[in-house]
Amino acid sequence: METSTLVGHENVVYVVSLDIAGKVLTGSFDKTARIWSLNDGGECLCTMRGHSAEVVAVAVDQSTQTVATSSMDQTTKLFSAVTGQNVVTLRGHTGEVVVNQFGSGGSTVITGSFDNTIKIWDIRTARCIATLNGHTAELTACHYDFSCRAIASSSLDGTAKLWDVRRTDSCRHTIAGHTDEVLDICFDSVGRRVATASSDCSACIWDASSGDLISAMIEHTKEVTKVFWEPAGHHLLTASQDNSAMFWDTETGECLQELKGHTDHVFSVVMSYFGDTILTASKDNTCCVWKQFNSKNN
């Protein structure tokens, strides 16, 4: 059930993230990122400015209270989550930066770009310490596993790749099962499976050690733009260009619930750590909060 809407961005809300403390981080085509409180009626606590183009990726490291924002201006910026002040700007990609994620402890951040590469950055020095090459088209996503020893990536070249952080010269596996561009990828909480989203209107789950297909979810009527694992790993959330999000059984591929309410493309979907709240971000300029959601974890 949708319970509230976060309104304040002046353009498309492209990405959303939720932390355990009940705060929401959003990135928008209005070139800003915002932090919101879910406990005060959706109050905007902080606005982070400085990018010269759309903000399309956001992440927060709880241990250092640092926010990373990536933009179509080819940079990633690090901000204080407390003050909203820009701490440092990471430069080095030659194309738009469309994804980022912190490593454990906040010592590194990975970024993926339309220059076809993934970069690993040392946050203390703001320097790139490794570049992963292998995709033949623009990156759409990259994701650490729980140990930060492996990275999964997806690309407009129609493939997903699995990488060993200790051997960045070549990928460990290439997944080539989708029939169109792969738009997103993420590991489950223990790093045994990866989920992918594709322009072929499907989401798939793969074995991370072998690259073999485990299950496919096929009910969306337009491209699937985002995948997000329920913390317990039994279910998967997807966001789609068909204006909906869906909640799936990862073993059977059955859609258990469809979340409808947006009036335009749903770009992003996340679930709270406890599985009782889902957030969706849309091209309709809003972020919807779905409460009292029964994920059947327990």
From TrEMBL:
SMART domains: WD40. The keyword Glycoprotein does not apply. It holds the Pfam family WD40. GO terms for molecular function: RNA polymerase II general transcription initiation factor activity. Keywords: Repeat, WD repeat. One of its GO terms (cellular component) is transcription factor TFIID complex. GO terms for biological process: transcription initiation at RNA polymerase II promoter. Gene3D superfamilies: YVTN repeat-like/Quinoprotein amine dehydrogenase. WD repeats lie at residues 6-41, 48-89, 90-131, 132-173, 175-216, 217-258, 259-298. This is Outer row dynein assembly protein 16. It comes from Schizaphis graminum (Green bug aphid). The lineage of its organism: Eukaryota, Metazoa, Ecdysozoa, Arthropoda, Hexapoda. The gene is WDR69.
